[in-house]
Amino acid sequence: MKHTNHADYALRVVLFLRVAPGRRGSIADIAAAHHVSRHHLDKVVQRMVAADLVRTTPGRGGGVSLHRDPATITVGEVMRAMEPDHAVVECLGPVRFCRVAGVCGARNVFAEAVAAYFAVLDAAGLDDIAVNDQGLRGALGLTGSTDIRR
């Protein structure tokens, strides 16, 4: 299953915020750290706000921050918020036109596979994918920050 850039960028946003000083950053800083389009990232953050994953604060000292404790955010939650369509085959989608529907077992197999995929993502929290705070900060250019793990 291949995810869109929105899902990829959303994971980058939450990883950045997970290790950023004060768990806050501007869209420009996050985009620069990941070498991605600020315009595209702005759209991603808007969707993340709607999904209650992050919040934005306007003005000086504002920016993007995690909406809640990162230990409570799962990778599966981020992916579901950014990827509304998980139909890896047509028969799992909203329009189910298939000449062999009802006499083919592929739908059940793929539905089970997607469920297993999300079970793994639901079991992985931000702390599980941010295993090296210092390394992430270095890779993202966040120097001089302290370890914020509990």
Automatic annotation (TrEMBL):
Highest taxon in the source lineage:
Bacteria
Q: Which GO terms describe its molecular function?
A: DNA binding; DNA-binding transcription factor activity
Q: Which UniProt keywords apply?
A: DNA-binding
- What InterPro entries has UniProt attached to this entry? Tscrpt_reg_Rrf2, WH-like_DNA-bd_sf, WH_DNA-bd_sf
The answer on whether this UniProt entry bears the keyword Zinc reads: no
Pfam families with a match to the protein in the record = Rrf2 (PF02082)
The GO cellular component terms are:
cytosol
**According to its UniProt record, which cofactors does this protein need?**
[2Fe-2S] cluster
* PANTHER family given in the database record: HTH-TYPE TRANSCRIPTIONAL REPRESSOR NSRR, WINGED HELIX-TURN-HELIX TRANSCRIPTIONAL REGULATOR, RRF2 FAMILY
Q: What is this protein called?
A: Transcriptional regulator, BadM/Rrf2 family
Look up and give the organism this protein is from.
Pseudonocardia thermophila
